[in-house]
Amino acid sequence: MEEAKHIKKIFKKTGKIIYDYELLKPNDKVLVALSGGKDSLILLESLAERKKSLPFNIELIAVHIHIDNIGYQTNLKFLTEFCNSINVPFHVDHFDIDLEKDKKKSTCFICSWNRRKRIFELTKELNCNKLAFGHHMDDALETLFMNMMYHGSISSLPQKFFMFEGRVEVIRPLLNITEEELVKFAEIRDYPKDLKSCPHEDKTKRKKTREIIELMQGSYNRSKLNIFRAMDNIYEEYLPKTIKRNKTQ
Fold it and tell me: Which of 73, 88, 145, 176 could form a disulfide with 195, with the two C-beta atoms 3.0–4.6 Å apart?
């Protein structure tokens, strides 16, 4: 009973985010980025569930980008069966990347950049006007802290934004949901793990940033939620400013 309630709770939260931020509109064709991890699986299942109750028609297509020369192995058989079970077409795109071209950049950065580039190309090839990612609240917080620490800027992940002069809209229907809630959902569903994990995982700045946020959460259990809300509650007049002088001065 409790497990069914939690599944329903996540579906309800996702539906509310979609409604509040108007993430879906009539005749949308949505490319869902399906990495095979719990977040993307929950995203796809939630969207397929939401589609049943929408008062208009949308089309979903799941896409998995597989970079063959990185060293991980995804359970493509499970992904295929999963998509079939919820009546969503599944597309797999295979390719290799050049890891020697820019040795100053980490393998994770190169892999992520190429994945993102290819998935945007596929939105055009598959004639999709929406691209859905499974980013959640913890992802937004980590991005916020990374941008502040490493780039000196305050920015994160919005629920939606347009790219390529409005050709495609990126949407994040799970953004207001915590990692903890999604972990519980995945445990209930008992999603299988990758057949072989990426040998480069847990070697990124994001992991270090996550540890910092967890320390804050440990000192006050509403830290994550409050920091997330703070991004939409900014008092600019109470922030320090940097003087920007003309280069001629």
Answer: 73
CB atoms within 10 A of CB 190: 6
Cβ–Cβ under 8 Å, residues 103 and 62: no
- CA-based nearest residue to 23, from 174, 143, 163: 174
What is the pairing mode between strands 130-132 and 168-171? parallel
- Strands 168-171 and 160-163 turn out to be antiparallel
* Tokens, residue 92: 């797999």
Residue pair 171/131 in contact (Cβ under 8 Å)? The answer is yes
pLDDT per position as a tens digit, 110-164 = 777 778 889 999 999 999 999 999 999 999 999 999 999 999 999 999 999 999 9
Instruction: State the DSSP string of 27-53.
Output: T-EEEEE--SSHHHHHHHHHHHHHHHH
45 pLDDT tier (thresholds 50, 70, 90)? very high
Element (H, E) at 2: helix 2-20
For the chain, give me the number of helices (H) and strands (E)?
8, 6
d(CA 196, CA 65): 16
